[in-house]
Specification:
The protein is mainly α and about 170 residues long. Helix content is about 75%, strand content about 0%. The protein has seven helices and no strands. The protein starts with a helix and ends in an 11-residue tail after the last helix.
Length: about 170
């Protein structure tokens, strides 16, 4: 069991590394590269361009920037927000409580409803079982962003039970 868990953990780490490399590298393949994205398409003087390159380490080789990124990530440094110019960790801090609440609430709700419907469908069989299987198949096949839009439109916009965005303060 321990060997299986370690194998799965190794696969997770490998997947995260490959994903981070592809996304990090993809930024450099975009038209104009990361410098154009950072400047927002605005024209800049050579001094401003040099300052941005130095600030974001764009004057270093790609591999060096990537390993620096991984090192910063390992130390909990998620960088600086391009919009607010604040550390990203400071921006995430106040929002983590609401996020964890939503995560735990959704997990409990899904477990309760899933176990109840699965048990009922398994015990009763017939049409109820077929309905549970069809509903769960549709639920699994629906992309999360589509389900989110439909649920927001129904429960937040139409019924007004929840705020459309934010924590409702």
């Amino acid at each position: 069991m321990v060997r299986y868990a370690l194998t799965r953990l190794g696969g997770l780490v490998g997947t995260l590394l490959v994903t981070s490399f592809v996304i990090f590298g993809g930024l450099y393949l975009s038209p104009g590269g990361p410098l154009n994205s950072l400047l927002g398409g605005r024209s800049a003087s050579p001094e401003q361009i040099a300052a941005v390159k130095t600030e974001y380490k764009l004057d270093q080789p790609f591999v060096e920037r990537y390993t620096s990124f991984l090192g910063d990530l390992a130390h909990g440094d998620l960088g600086t927000s391009l919009i607010s110019r604040q550390p990203v960790t400071e921006l995430l801090g106040p929002r983590i409580g609401v996020t964890l609440f939503l995560l735990v609430f959704a997990l409990i709700l899904v477990l309760l409803v899933g176990v109840a419907l699965g048990t009922l469908g398994g015990l009763r069989g017939g049409r109820l079982d077929s309905a549970v299987v069809i509903a769960s198949s549709v639920g699994l096949a629906t992309p999360a962003f589509v389900a989110a839009i439909i649920l927001i439109a129904l429960f937040a916009v139409q019924l007004g039970w929840f705020p459309v965005f934010g924590a409702g303060q």
